[in-house]
Structure formats: structure tokens, C-alpha cells
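REQUEST FORM: STRUCTURE PREDICTION
Request ID: SP-0412
Submitted by: Lab K.M.
Chain count: 1
Length (residues): 211
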Amino acid sequence: MSLLEDPIEKKRRQAPAAEPVLLCHSLEALLEAGLGDGAELAIWPRQLPPEIGAAFEMLDCSSFEDIRFTGPPRDVFQRAWVWLSQAHWPALVRQTILGDVKAAFACVRDIDADCTFRLEYVTDDACRKFHKDDTDFRLITTYFGPGTEWRVERAGEEPGNIGEMKPHEVGMLLGQRCSLANCVLHRSPPIEGSGQARLVLVLDFERPGYC
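STATUS: Completed
RESULT:
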């Protein structure tokens, strides 16, 4: 074996086997699970003050068009800040979204990663099939409406029960990994025709060299 071992491969070999699903007590713990391949899905059961939830519930997204920015976190945050500063949304809503993005980027400031920011208003059955994305890792939160659904599917076994994240909870989803079981799948809950809608923030992170 070469003495010049690739550091990413070394980290993967030394990392403990991931738990399928992990509950975390903070955003920092959530990101630690993602950066360390500690769980395929980690959830921070965050609860925000009632006035924030009420502000989102009253939000009119009927004319909202989904937004998407990709690049270094600093550039992505600046573009999100400009867009939200111009949006005719309550200050509490804008501050909450920007606060979530800023906190996430602060946790990954020491790693080399690009980010894709997506803010989506969902009224249909987009991504209704359970799947795992071909990405490094993702942070996701639903500000109103049904949250992201997930379940454990292992080869040769019946699929597990469907779990659902609650509004304002934060989830970390690992993408495909060569070294993990890849058994935790997720989907956008099917809501078409129900009259329900969702506002979802997605932050996809991509570090060089991860499968």
C-alpha cells in the first residue's frame, strides 16, 4: 500500500458504521453526523416560537417562484440575502430563513464545499417515490405543510414504517455512499389534490471526492 494514503479514503475506513437514523440536540450535532458519515438521516427536532410558525402559516406564496442558487456558501448567502431583502414577506419570515442559512454555513465554514440553495413552494406530488439522492449531504426543513417523509429499506426485508419530519425540524440526509448501507430513503409527501402546500428550504453540500 502506498505511504501517501488518500486522506478521504483513510477517513472512510476509520469511520464507525453509520446508524440509519439519529436524533440530534443541535444543528452542530446534525452537521457533525453529516460530515462524519455518522448516520444516513439525522434529525434535530427543533421547536421555534409560536409567532414564527404563525408568520409562516399566514404567508401568501401564490405568486412565489422557486429560487435556486449554487456556488461557494458566502456567495450563495449573499444572493439569498438580496432576494429575501426584496421579497414582500414579513420580516420574521425573512429573518428566520436567512438565520437558518447563516447558521448552517457557519457550521461548515472550515470545509471545502459548494452549496446549492433551494427555496421551493410545493403543491404537487414532486419526488413522491422513496429515493436517495446522488449528492454529498443535504440539510432540509419545511416551514409549513407536511414535512419530508422517510423510511428504512433493507434488502430482503419489508420496508419500515414511514416517518415524517415536523415543520421547522431540521434534517440531514446523506447521499449515496460507497461505504454505507444506503438504506434510508426519503420523499416529498404526496399532497396533490389535498389542498395542502409546503414551503421547503434545501441546502445541498458537495465536497470534492465523495461518492
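NOTES: The first helix runs from residue 7 to 14.
Reviewed by: T.R.
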